[in-house]
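Tutorial, part two.
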Amino acid sequence: MCKTMEQSFIAYIENSIKNNWDLDALTDYKGATLQYKDVARKIEKLHIIFEESGIRKGDKIAVCGRNSSHWGVTFLATLTYGAVVVPILHEFKADNIHNIVNHSEAKLLLVGDMVWENLNESAMPLLEGILMMNDFTLLVSRSERLTYAREHLNEMFGKKYPKNFRTEHIAYHKDEPEELAVINYTSGTTSYSKGVMLPYRSLWSNTKFAFEVLDLQAGDKIVSMLPMAHMYGLAFEFLYEFSVGCHIYFLTRMPSPKIIFQAFEEVKPNLIVAVPLIIEKIIKKSVLPKLETPAMKILLKVPIINDKIKATVREEMIKAFGGNFKAVIVGGAAFNQEVEQFLKMIDFPYTVGYGMTECGPIICYEDWRRFKPGSCGKAVPRMDVKVLSSDPENIVGEIVCKGPNVMLGYYKNEEATQEVIDKDGWLHTGDLALMDAEGNVTIKGRSKNLLLSASGQNIYPEEIEDKLNNLPYVAESIIVQQNEKLVGLVYPDFDDLETIKKTLDTAKELGYKDIFTSIELGDLGFENTTIGINDKFQFLFEYCHQLDLEIHVDINDRMLKHIGGAPDNLKPVFDLKIKVLRLDSGFTHQEIALMTKNPYGIIIEENASMLQFPKERIETIVSEGNIQ
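Running the prediction step on this input gives:
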């Protein structure tokens, strides 16, 4: 394949360093800042270590640690030297890290301090050395050349550049399109972990795409919160921004919503790249509850007031994300339908993309002004995308794609490569979707996840999970099939549970004896479905038990049908007696919340009904539930 300078990924990096020499480049949030010239010097020092210790072009260098400025430096130094970088997710268990280092045949490993604490160097016999990422401290050396290079690094650097290190000294590796650049080990979206081999053409095409559709300028700011060991965060929160000349802030800690929005307020990023969970949390917890009260529902039906409310909510949302961004790009997982509908209603500048590690990662995207809600955009430049279906607009089929973004294959696994890349070069993604006449792709689920009911109905677990994830206390869920039944496994939202804990503490202090809570699943549309109530509400039950509070659970007929009609199905593992209220009086979850101090752990107060509702409806709850 013929290549011009414009098709070189490393040229993007080299030109940005030279053109933005005195600009701020990388900052560890609440920590130190490196300018582009500082990054260049650190890259050069790593190049000296690599060269003097005998690392050759094409050798593998692994990097494992939390996002940080020095993670970025290490990644760029490896590629610009001509070595192959192997990014490893810092959250992997030690055995997984050992296996990846060994399988990739890495010569060097650069680690963060928290990762190094759990590793065993004897389990990685092929390594010639292990260095600390933040200051290149030599932790393990099995090479005299490496030891000498590290001990005499500053001396070597001084001799090589006696009159300071300047832009004219930069002359990085000249990459070729089919040359291997990255081996990314990830479970990704194709089952068990494999080493995805990404060539330079993939890095270049993904970066070029970002230049084509995004509008960042040198000096713009971005908060990097997605793990750079994943291609989504690496490509669109680091490589593109660095190529532009942006100032990148790394959240070096676990990116909790509190830390993220504190960073947004201080940094005021020009672009936000996120996964759905981050966006959904702020909306579901801080925005939707205020809009779902009966009074607000009425106001939203009045045209002029409706528009003003939406404008105010949009303004508050934009302010929460720093107030200075051009768009919010969402990817990495399916977007919750309710949240997406809300964003569209207030005309929030968001869009949803689609990709996978095997494409480094981008496959589909559309600008937020033209984006079709519910879809994940259209085929990006240079990529061909189609849905294998006799009628793609109405009949679901597998997404396949072809183009420069596509990987070379799986490292040392030709059989797995042939399973996903056919003889004509089409990558079979395993994702099922529809495609409309304009080319908008709407994903329905994973082919390997598709379930078949006893009646022959196709069931997409993702659709049920989408509904479950809207429930109080639920952070994430997964639907599995067991003995012809669908079973929902739920991971609790511990932020919500902490709120419940405080509410229950208050209830105890005020002398309440009874707590009322509502479980609403809505109509999932599938028979023989069991939801893991015990798992989801165990914290709530257990804490009430500790405080000697009686808990009452409101369940509708549909829910009773799902759990087999027996209240005993709600009994948690520690055998706490649960009173089940059959509530048919028509209260919604929002109405119940309005009568109470808290929408989750709900305290029924005397005369609370006088606020909005007929007294007899309150009496129905109190009499049937025997609430004092």
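The first strand starts at residue 24 and ends at 28. In part three we will examine how such features are distributed along the chain.
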